[in-house]
Automatic annotation (TrEMBL):
Top-rank lineage group of the source organism: Bacteria
PROSITE patterns: STAS
Organism: Methylophilus luteus
CDD domains: STAS_RsbR_RsbS_like (cd07041)
Protein name: STAS domain-containing protein
Residue ranges annotated for the STAS domain, each copy included: 2-113
Any matching Pfam family: STAS
């Protein structure tokens, strides 16, 4: 089964999505990530979506739900690298990604997480 790697960087977890997301992969990532937050006692999660050209409503909700789950597990989530077309699509779909902090790139995302943890 295909999985997206989750890297540990001190108290943070880094997820770089470099493949086209489909529903099953998104659900597997969500489960893997919440498991790792608990196992590693992570204080922050950085999700890099810079390689994604398109996001559908399911993937948008998955990102939002993952951030909500991380928050319950005492970890903040920052999504980085959002392409303009993805941002436009999310707005057109009416997905506000509530609870999701965004940053332009990984460096800014890490700085935001380190400042808030």
């Amino acid at each position: 089964m295909e999985r997206i790697p989750i890297l540990r960087m001190g108290p943070l977890l880094l997820v770089t999505i470099q493949v086209d997301m489909h529903d099953r992969l998104a659900m597997t990532l969500q489960e893997d990530l919440t498991d790792r937050i608990v196992k590693d006692r992570a204080k922050g999660v950085l999700i890099d979506i810079s390689a994604l050209d398109i996001v559908d409503s399911f993937i948008g909700r998955m990102i939002s739900n993952t951030a909500a789950m991380a928050k319950i597990l005492d970890a903040k989530t920052v999504v980085v690298g959002m392409q303009p077309a993805v941002a436009i699509t999310l707005v057109e779909l009416g997905l506000a990604l509530e609870g999701v902090i965004t940053a332009l790139n990984v460096e800014r995302g890490i700085a935001m997480l380190e400042h808030n943890t």
